[in-house]
Amino acid sequence: MDAANQAILERAKKSRSTSRSLVTKQINKLESEISNSADKTTVHEIYMQLISKFEELSTFNKEIESLIDIESLEEEILTREEYRDKFIIWKIRAERYVGSVSNNAIQNSVENQPQNMTLPLSSTVSSVLTNQPRLPKLTLESFSGKDIISFPSFWARFKSAVHENSSLNDVDNFPI
After folding, report:
1. 47-94 pLDDT per residue, tens
2. Beta-carbon count within 10 A of 92 CB
3. Are 36 and 53 in contact (CB under 8 A)?
């Protein structure tokens, strides 16, 4: 690799290192807020910031993967997948937390309604639901079966996102 490409690679690695640090800090912040039962708006804001930081990290990863030599590629991909797995886990936890807080709010608002209230239950539920933020849809890459080395990473993401996700109903969880 010539000196110019080496300098570009080193700059990208330094930027990625900073980006990884920011992603880790955001995950720690999200974990802390969920542990402290923060309101769903705060958790959602931190979660959206995490998505932004992870997208930036992904950009740096792609740039570095295009610059490195083939011998370093496997290690780069394994490290990238560790961060991706952490991101997916915390993405699911944030979505589950925001969803569970919303469900608790609906249940509490229904339980605390005065008995003589004339408002129909569906109006109460829909008014609470309209305040629920929309989280991005989770997409998983499918496993082609061609590269057995990538299966453990795929399975970890699938297990976390679908197989062990108690917030999915049977229809959504059914593998097609």
Report:
1. 999 999 999 999 999 999 988 988 888 999 999 999 999 999 999 999
2. 18
3. no
Concatenating the DSSP letter of every residue in 13-43 gives HHHHHHHHHHHHHHHHHHHHHHHTT--HHHH
Residue 32: CB partners within 8 Å, gap ≥ 6? none
Place of tokens 């997948």: 81
> Which 3 state secondary structure label does DSSP give 115?
coil
99: Cβ contacts below 8 Å, ≥ 6 apart? 132, 167
CA distance 58 to 30: 19
pTM: 0.56
Alpha helix stretches (DSSP H) within the chain: 3-35, 40-67, 70-111, 121-129, 151-158, 170-173
Residues 6+ apart with CB under 8 A from 109: 124, 128
Task: Return the closest-CA partner of residue 84 out of 27, 134, 29, 42.
Answer: 27
